[in-house]
Amino acid sequence: MTFTRHHKVWPKELPKTMTLPQTSVFTNLEVSARRYPDHNAIIYYDTPMTYRSLLGEVEALAGYLQHQGVKKGERVLLYMQNSPQYVIAYYAILRADAVVIPVNPMNRSAELEHYIADTDARVCLAGQELAEFITPLVATSGLENVVVTAYSSYVREPTDLTLPAEVAAPVQPVTVAGCTAWDDAISAGHAPASYSAGPDDLAVFPYSSGTTGAPKGCMHTHRSVMATALHRALWNVSSADSVHLATLPFFHVTGMTGSMNGPLYSGSTIVIMTRWDRATAAKLIERYRVTGWSNIVTMAVDFLSNPEIGNYDLSSLSTIGGGGAAMPEAVAHKLKTMTGLDYIEGYGLSETMAATHINPTAHPKAQCLGIPVFDVDSRIIDVETLAEKGPGEVGEIVSHGPQVMVGYWNRPADTDAAFVTIDGKRFFRTGDLGYYDDDGYFFMVDRVKRMINASGFKVWPSEVEGLMYRHPGIHEVCIISAPHEKRGETVKAVIVLTPAAADSTSEADIIAWCREQMAAYKVPERVQFVDQLPKSPTGKLMWRALQEQEWQG
Predict the structure, then answer these.
(1) What's the CA gap between 354 and 228, in Å, rounded?
(2) N or C: which end of the chain has fewer CB within 10 A?
(3) Cβ-count burial of 420 within 10 angstroms (0-12 exposed, 13-18 middle, 19+ buried)?
């Protein structure tokens, strides 16, 4: 038995199943470069790069990686912001038969240590502005080589666009031992060996923080990455003449799939922004006749709140969509009035390489996750008994499909706990509570897992707590969410200080320390000092009691 309730609203122009290529994800770029060698693959602040040039630089960097001893299946860190170099690095790692470890550029040294230790990575490709956080680890970890690049080296044409500071920054000489300048790596002249990666070989490990312990690597094969690349291309009717605005970070599976892998499969043009800027986005849509734009809701809200937005020609847009949080009805109405387009919401996780559900473009529903996409079987089950539920009944969302990960890297127990067998098929347990309606549309209700969603950024309290326990003045800490007028919810730390720190540590001190230790979106915006934290008779921290108290306020 398979969930088919949504077939009555399935897009008429699309098949309900999709045969995946039996090739590597790198092959998508190779094929597009053969088909459209002189077509622009990338436009970066008015500087174009053709498919021929993109493939040439990918091959050159792949050769360098192999010359450094990178072997098939070896993990390579990719630590930079959206840029042509990100695309080159991603596909070069795959071309070298290695595995991409996409690292959030907001992460800092303490978090990077975990990635290096967990994956045994010896090589990292990094942005120049991030070098200070990763290069010191060459001397203190298993990391052996960091290739450093400045985004400005790929802005080669004059532009009237406002450049982010990281993009405007000139190239700095690379002088740290164990580090290599990007241009030197590209120009080294090392040709890569023939590649052998196929659909069942590992390709990408996006990291997903869980409710306990450190972040876990989601093992994705070329097949699962290929699945969502094709899903998005087909669902959005993407072609070589499509132009995509890339504002979502490539390190995150939604941006990786919708704004990089999908467009490159189609031979489309990707207009890349390193940092979000609503005026620049509007100029780029007008200037390059952008047809598709994937974003998060907070980005769309900011874009539409620009008082000058009416001065731009946005008529080229044919699809706008995303997720991260439910789109407010008033904002969706404004978008529809301005562009004639519905905001197409979708749903997925790092474990599913982005979307398992997307709204059909002809029949979207507001604040809805969408319907299961090609070859996805999704159900609602009872969290405790695992019994399947019917329409309108709330339970845990579980999904089976070609885009679901193999499991968590080096964590067999976590992998076993993340899956359940139904009708002889292996379903991933999302940890999200929801229901489906009579038409087969899925809706989110709550989260089984303990997670904070701050403007689409997922913050896992246990991870933040683990980092904060490094502070010598913190005796105990509990991370909870707090209401926030704009972000919906934000991060709050409830802290018991050590006696030595009690009289000399302020809330501002804690926040400042956190900013140096972790990604900005994880940093507690609010801090509360207490004498003790509530615990159960068995000594278990009763975080839910603090959470409820905060929201009842």
Answers:
(1) 7
(2) C
(3) middle
Helices (H), 237-328: 253-256, 262-266, 278-288, 297-304
pLDDT at 171: 97
Q: Distance (Å, rounded) from C-alpha 543 to C-alpha 534? A: 8
Output the CA–CA distances (angstroms, integers) from residue 233 to 173, 181, 352, in the order listed.
40, 35, 17
Distance CA 260, CA 255 (A): 7
408 backbone dihedrals φ, ψ, rounded to 5°: -90, 135
pLDDT of residue 213: 62
Could you give the CA distance from residue 37 to residue 51 in angstroms, rounded to a whole number? 5
Per-residue pLDDT at 373 exceeds 60: yes
**Contacts with 265 (C-beta within 8 Å, 6 or more apart), sequence order:** 28, 32, 229, 230, 233
In whole angstroms, give the CA distance from residue 300 to residue 377: 30
Contact 294, 248 (CB under 8 A): yes
Matching residue, tokens 């007008």: 286
Residue 323 CA to residue 137 CA, distance in Å, equals 35
Separation of alpha carbons 375 and 373, rounded Å: 6
- The predicted-structure confidence for 307-354, as pLDDT tens digits, reads as follows 999 999 999 999 999 987 777 777 888 899 999 999 999 999 999 999
Coil vs helix vs strand at 266:
helix
Give me the domains of the chain, ranges plus CATH numbers. 51-197 (3.40.50.980), 380-447 (2.30.38.10), 452-552 (3.30.300.30)
Look at residue 111 in the predicted model and tell me its pLDDT. 87
Which long-range CB contacts under 8 A does 364-368 form with residues at least 24 apart?
A: 365/441, 366/327, 366/329, 366/332, 367/326, 367/327, 367/329, 367/443, 368/441, 368/442, 368/443
Rounded to an integer, what distance in angstroms lies between the CA atom of residue 225 and that of residue 243?
A: 21
